[in-house]
Amino acid sequence: MRIFLDTANIDHIRHAAKLGIISGVTTNPSLVAREESADFKAAILEICSIVGGPVSAEVLSLDAEAMIEEARQLSSWHENVVVKIPVSEAGLEAISVLSRENIKTNFTLCFSANQALLGALAGATYVSPFVGRLDDIGHQGMEVVKDAVEIFEYYDLPTQVIAASLRHPLHMVSAAKAGAHVATVPYNVLMQMIRHPLTDIGISRFAEDWRKVIEK
Ligand code: G3P
After folding, report:
1. Does the beta carbon of 6 lie inside 6 Å of ligand 1?
2. b or e along 198-209 (b: 16 or more beta carbons within 10 Å of the residue's beta carbon)?
3. 156 phi-psi bin (left φ>0, alpha ψ -120 to 50, beta other)
């Protein structure tokens, strides 16, 4: 499973990239709005210069024609830009046109295996089930990831599943066990994945024991 960072925060992206553990970035309008930069294009280009992998940028248009135009624009910014298109009839229409133009897409705000299947049939490069938001309303969000992975494998569909809206480290383990191709993770969850109290205790105990040897 590859890990993408789910943020538009440049410092966080720079740090995670330095650790060598992320292979892409996903953004959405809410994540971009949270950052200082008012220039969306400059922010996406800066992210592309840090991470040598797919960088998702979302369209804001709601009708198919406008989505397609916006997607062409976004994808012309950099070869690694993947255009996020929300689930809707217009979104499916846009993806089917864009896939014929080899423009990479991420079918987002996906909350069911049916939506994921339709995205794959339209030619989406990625579909993004939002696990945490389903959990929030009492559903098992990871089931959508599992179902989509199983369906795509069964029918040899090339679309990749991005487990999205992940909120805690256990989501990452479940996404990996569900066979997600990618998990897109907030920075704080990525940092939590690294830490374990027994590791910290072990490191200080080793240092302490060694100091005793040196001080003898
Ligand atoms: O990747 C989708 C993600 O950004 C949504 O996360 O926490 O707003 O549900 P969240």
Report:
1. yes
2. eeeeeeeeeeee
3. left
Q: Is 130 in the pocket of ligand 1 (CB under 6 A)?
A: yes
Model pTM?
0.95
Q: Give CA–CA dist 34/110, Å, rounded.
A: 22
Q: Is the CB of 132 under 6 A from ligand 1?
A: yes
- Judged by phi (left if over 0) then psi (alpha if -120 to 50, else beta), residue 86 lies in beta
Q: How high does pLDDT run on average in the chain?
A: 97
pLDDT of residue 58: 97
In this structure, are residues 105 and 83 in contact, taking their beta carbons and an 8 Å threshold?
yes
pLDDT digits (tens, 9 = 90+) for 112-169: 999 999 999 999 999 999 999 999 999 999 999 999 999 999 999 999 999 999 999 9
pLDDT digits (tens, 9 = 90+) for 97-111: 999 999 999 999 999
- Listed in sequence order, the residues at least 6 apart from 171 whose beta carbon sits closer than 8 Å to its beta carbon are 131, 132, 142, 163, 183, 189
Point out the catalytic residue in the list 18, 84, 104, 146.
84
- Rounded (10°) CA dihedral 166, 98, 86, 157: -50
